[in-house]
Amino acid sequence: MENREPQQTPENGTHHPNGHHRIPRPWDSLQRESQPQQPYTPQVKQEPQTPSVYFTPHARSVSGGAESSYGQRYNGYVKQEPALEDGAAIDPALFDMGSATVSSAPPSSGHSSRHSSPAIPSAQFHTPQVSHRNTPEATPLKMATPEATPLKTEPAPPETPAHKIVASSSDDYDPVTAFKVAVDKIHPGCFSGTAQTLIVQSPLSYKHTFGRSWMGKKYKDSLVERPERLKATSLGVGAAIVNNPGKFEIEESTRQASLTAEHVTAVHGKEYVQLLERLCRESAEKLQAGQLELPPGWPEGDIYLSPETLTALRGVVGAVERGVDALYDSDISEALLKLSIGDTPPPEGTSKTFSQAFVNIRPPGHHCHACDPSGFCLINNAHVAIQYAAKQYGVTHAVILDFDLHHGDGSQDICWSQVNVGAESTPEHTPEPENKHSYPTPSIGYFSVHDINSFPTEFGYATPEALRNASTCLMGHGLAIWNVHLEPYETEEEFWKLYRKYCVLFEKANEFFFRAQREAREAGREFKPLVVLSAGFDASEHECKGMQRHSVNVPVEFYHRFSKDSAALASYYKGKLLSLLEGGYSDAALSTGVWSHLTGLVGRDWNADIGSQATARDAEKVCRNKDSRTRKGDNIFESLRLGKLLWPDTGLPPPPSTRTRRPRTANQT
Q1: From the CA atom positions of the chain, what is the Rg in Å?
Q2: pTM for the full predicted model
Q3: CA-CA distances (angstroms) from residue 352 to 103, 178, 337, 576, 577?
Q4: Could you tell me if residue 338 is inside a domain?
Q5: DSSP 92
Q6: In this structure, is residue 471 part of a structural domain?
Q7: How confident is the model at residue 346 (pLDDT cuts 50, 70, 90)?
Q8: First vs last C-alpha separation in the chain
Q9: Domain total for the chain?
């Protein structure tokens, strides 16, 4: 029998000789030639024009094991990584803002390296072949923070001195400018205008702090949703930029948006956001009197407010808007480009907008329902971003890919409320907001991989309704919702077999886009897709023990691979990708997770050193300011230290220790 290959058609995906169609496979290009495997075919019902998507997940090797959930501290196991090839080394003098150099010679044999491994491979540290800036090497970049959007709401009342929150950058220090100047000394032309991925830092997010002064030190130390989380993520951001020159642009957003803006009330309704604003303004007086600042019914164990929480939330919405603008508004993208390269013309063929954006914000949002805060979340950042993109730029379809350890019950619930399927289909505890708005409602799909035994479905806490919601799989009635549960593993090879199961999320998201694109084409309507990542890192093998008390986690490389596959999905449909920080609470989990995530987004190969135990320990030391000694030639450690330049001058104390366990030996299971 003749072996006939399927033919690709732009409108219908892959066309087979027998007349059937198969949804295209944007992930095929990501497979590793060094480790070929048979295509993975999920057992799903085949339908005309919408058969299943095929995946060939790769296999590597790390360890598993762990414990997880909300409260204590965890330290994962990581197999010792092999030595790396010699490469360029960061000069520690960089941290004195002196001249940093790139050395092609191997590091000195006398320094203390990670597992006796030399520097990062040279491919990671060489400047890409792009047109460099025509400015002297030592000339600082002329960065300027864009003017904030004026608020149309009344200003917040003055802070009470006893509860004043010292969490804003000082007037004489610009973290992003300092970081860019330092990086430019290592990689001249690193910010040369070719980057397709923007990172948005949100210093206003530091302002959301715990203000119940009557609580004891032990209780305060147990709080995991705290401003210091952004210090840890900034280390990952810095390391990703340094090790992938030319791939990222970075800016700091101090833009404040009104919580009563149309794209916010489309998600939460006016009544809820007005209540939230009032509670924040009244919190100073209540906290000073030793009274709880929350209304009855709000979970005081994981929700807290302060006067500056309102500023933080406005800053979160502003940063989200900024990230979306950079994806679609060429004027904003060109302004960012000009800040980086001055009057130097950008390289020929450079896109006028970014393809991807990562917004480094807190508090997280995926547990927040339409009118019901929960799980540290006060507004649903992902849904607000989608509504803003629909309102401002005509986005018609969006998928939320959620890889946080915990089920994003709020995000999924809001998807129900956006579809007219009857009141009984919407969970009873979440009121319907008045979400009338002036623009067409985008179609939204929610796809999540999470631990079914963790919040909000933890034993002793979960309700039958919550368990059903966290296990829902539905593609119909105008809804696209698919949930997959994480499973424990012992070896990395075993994990990557499980990853094939998790890939069903990409299949279903792909199916959602594929059908929407076809329907839009047949109806003569525009199809404008957006991929939103709810980027939580609390499933990491390096997360604290309390978060992972149910023994389910993922290797750090998971974030690289999942992000790479997500970017492939967005790229295939010529859509944009927006990543928003969700959970992740230990310094090691956040630093290594964000680094892995960003490396995957830009399509770079995996570097096993990113997820190593040594890197996790170094990240903890840097976060706790115990990195006074430089390690000349140890580029991993020094690139993490470079991320400290992105910290605002907050005066915040170092977080409690998050010690990690020793690596497992070869004979341990």
Answers
A1: 24
A2: 0.75
A3: 34, 25, 9, 13, 16
A4: yes
A5: G
A6: yes
A7: low
A8: 48
A9: 1
Is 588 part of a structural domain of the chain? Answer: yes
For residue 402, what are the β-bridge partners?
448, 534
**Is residue 231 domain-resident?**
yes
Q: Which residue matches tokens 């991989």?
A: 449
Catalytic residue among 367, 406, 407, 597: 367
CA distance 466 to 473: 14
Q: Provide CB contacts within 8 A for 514, sequence distance 6+.
A: 13, 23, 24, 50
- Taking only the tens place, the pLDDT of each residue in 134-169 is 333 333 333 333 344 444 443 443 333 333 223 334
Residue 84 to residue 281: CA distance in whole angstroms = 54
The CATH code of the domain that includes 282 is 3.40.800.20
> Which run of H or of E encompasses 246?
none
Handedness of CA 128, 133, 134, 135 (dihedral sign): negative
Give, as one character, the DSSP assignment of residue 538.
Answer: T
369 close to 414: Cβ distance less than 8 angstroms: yes
Q: Give the Cα separation of 23 and 165 in Å (integer).
A: 52
Indicate the residue type of 636.
I
- Distance between CA 27 and CA 465 in Å, rounded? 35
Q: In whole angstroms, how far apart are CA 591 and each of 228, 544, 609, 641?
A: 12, 13, 13, 11
Q: What is the mean pLDDT of residues 643-666?
A: 58
**Residue position matching structure tokens 């206003």:** 204
Rounded CA gap, 617 and 234, in Å? 16
**Is 450 tagged catalytic?**
no
Dump pLDDT digits (tens) for 303-316: 999 999 999 999 99
Amino acid letter at 277? E
pLDDT tens-digit map of 596-633: 999 999 999 999 999 999 999 999 999 999 887 767 77
Output phi, psi for 562, to 5 deg.
-65, -40
With tokens 């802070």, the residue in question is 159
Q: Domain range holding 363?
A: 10-144+172-646
Whether 506 shows a pLDDT value over 50: the answer reads: yes
Query: Alpha-carbon distance 255 to 204, whole Å?
Result: 9
Q: What is the pLDDT of residues 451-494, one digit of tens each?
A: 999 999 998 888 999 999 999 999 998 899 999 999 999 999 99
Where residue 93 falls among pLDDT bands split at 50, 70, 90? very low
